[in-house]
Write a structure and sequence with these properties.
By secondary structure, the chain is of the alpha/beta class. Helix content is 40%, strand content 13%. InterPro entries: DXP_reductoisomerase (IPR003821), DXP_reductoisomerase_C (IPR013644), DXP_reductoisomerase_N (IPR013512), DXPR_C (IPR026877), DXPR_C_sf (IPR036169), NAD(P)-bd_dom_sf (IPR036291).
Length: 436
């Protein structure tokens, strides 16, 4: 697939035309739906997918599911089909097709089922869907997201690689098809909410908050002893394994790292104007500073359903029951604290900063190498501190082949290359954090 614009214009779009240029204003005359908004969910059995379905179940008058795609959890997928009655279902693992059919044998409703990658793509571009929730982790979510954009669907973005790896390709494509990219993760949703109605040029700085993850209170010298179970104990959020480990390493929050790169593409902030602050309570989900030095923050209990809900309902606000959606009580909370991130404890910050500055395919290589390294750590093939070294060595190797204006094929090629290279790296048995 070729870039939709010449290389020079891709750079221009990258620099000047982010998804939201520091402000968010609903277009006048935007179509108002008659009835519940039809949505597709790519990654329906994962953390983002299941929480999205919680929202649909809570608001059947606001949303309805027209298509679902899952990877291999056919038991849960079958339950979702019976509950939400989508028109189309995809199971990415083709070998599980018969198992899914058997699980639905006694159902009074039978959807169309398309197996494999093609099925996931068809779910993403289902003709009835207005918005597609992209909940697949990794570059596997890029192709269905591109298909959805080409079909004119708004994107509820929970797949970071769409912009981290694919930003130079995806942003001009979304603009070409007049598609909105709406951030579904907590931090970028917070920024998105804070820029609503800002006048042009008002954004001065983006302040991303990070909980600090499982090891925020651990001394650096103890990190060599980290086990998988330790890294998966996130103090505040209920998330998937990969994202939880990323919170522990701070790869998902590293300065000019994964979420900083995503913020750059989403809101057009320069890297020097995107900062990280450790906020252990995870109540302030992120902040912006305006040109007059005012700081605007978005607060709420740590609950991923809230940013997902806003992504689905924007520009509207939907009433939430106090029973299932507890309201924030600042007096009960008591206090909020903040501190600067530790570069020695989180060497991912310097690694990701360098990758963000390099741009092009380097950010996708960083993300893919990190994903592979986290996978190896969870599988107990490497130690916790090895995650940083695997990513560093992979990025160093890629420097000679960096593509500054990548096509979709380049992005996918180097994603696969990075995973393979990272998986074959041989490391010494013990590593220590490298001081900044």
């Amino acid at each position: 697939m070729e870039n939709p614009l010449p290389g020079e214009l891709v750079v221009l779009f990258n620099r000047l035309l982010p998804a939201w240029p520091g402000r968010a204003v609903a277009e006048q005359g935007r179509k108002v739906l008659d009835g519940p908004k039809p949505i597709s969910i790519v990654g329906s059995t994962g953390s983002i997918g299941t929480q999205t379905l919680d929202i649909v179940a809570e608001n059947p008058d606001k949303f309805r599911v027209v298509a679902l795609a899952a990877g291999s959890n056919v038991t849960l997928l079958a339950e979702q089909v019976k509950t939400f009655r989508p028109q189309l279902v995809a199971v990415r693992n083709e070998s599980l097709l018969n198992e899914l059919k058997e699980a639905l044998a006694d159902a009074d409703y039978k959807p169309e089922i398309i197996p494999g990658e093609q099925g996931v793509v068809e779910v993403a571009r289902h003709p009835d869907a207005v918005t597609v929730v992209t909940g697949i982790v990794g570059c596997a979510g890029l192709k269905p997201t591109v298909a959805a954009i080409e079909a004119g669907k708004d994107i509820a973005l929970a797949n970071k690689e769409t912009l981290i790896a694919g930003g130079p390709f995806v942003l001009p494509l979304a603009r070409k098809h007049n598609v909105k990219i709406l951030p579904a993760d907590s931090e970028h949703s917070a920024i998105f909410q804070c820029i609503q109605g800002l006048p042009e040029g008002a954004l001065r700085r983006v302040i991303l908050t990070a909980s600090g993850g499982a090891f925020r209170d651990w001394p650096v010298e103890k990190l060599k002893d980290v086990k998988v179970a330790d890294a998966l104990k996130h103090p505040n959020w209920n998330m998937g394994k990969k994202i939880t480990v990323d919170s522990a390493t701070l790869f998902n929050k590293a300065r000019s790292g994964l979420e900083v790169i995503e913020a750059h593409y989403l809101f057009g902030a320069e890297y020097d104007d995107i900062e990280i602050v450790i906020h252990p309570q995870s109540i302030i989900h992120s902040m912006i500073e305006t040109q007059d030095s005012s700081v605007i923050a978005q607060l709420g209990w740590p609950d991923m359903r809230l940013p997902i809900l806003y992504t689905l309902s924007w520009p509207d606000r939907i009433y939430c029951s106090e029973i299932t959606w507890p309201r924030l009580d600042l007096c009960k909370l008591g206090s909020l604290t903040f501190k600067a991130p530790d570069n020695v404890k989180y060497p991912s910050m310097d690694l990701a900063y360098a990758a963000g500055r390099a741009g092009g395919t380097m950010t996708g290589v960083l993300s893919a190498a990190n994903e592979k390294a986290v996978e190896m750590f969870i599988d107990e093939k490497i130690e916790y501190l090895d995650i940083f070294k695997v990513v560093e060595l992979t990025c160093e190797k890629h420097q000679a082949e960096l593509v500054t204006q990548p096509s979709l094929e380049d992005i996918i090629h180097y994603d696969l290359w990075a995973r393979k290279y990272a998986g074959n790296i041989k490391l010494p048995s013990s590593l220590s954090p490298v001081p900044a």
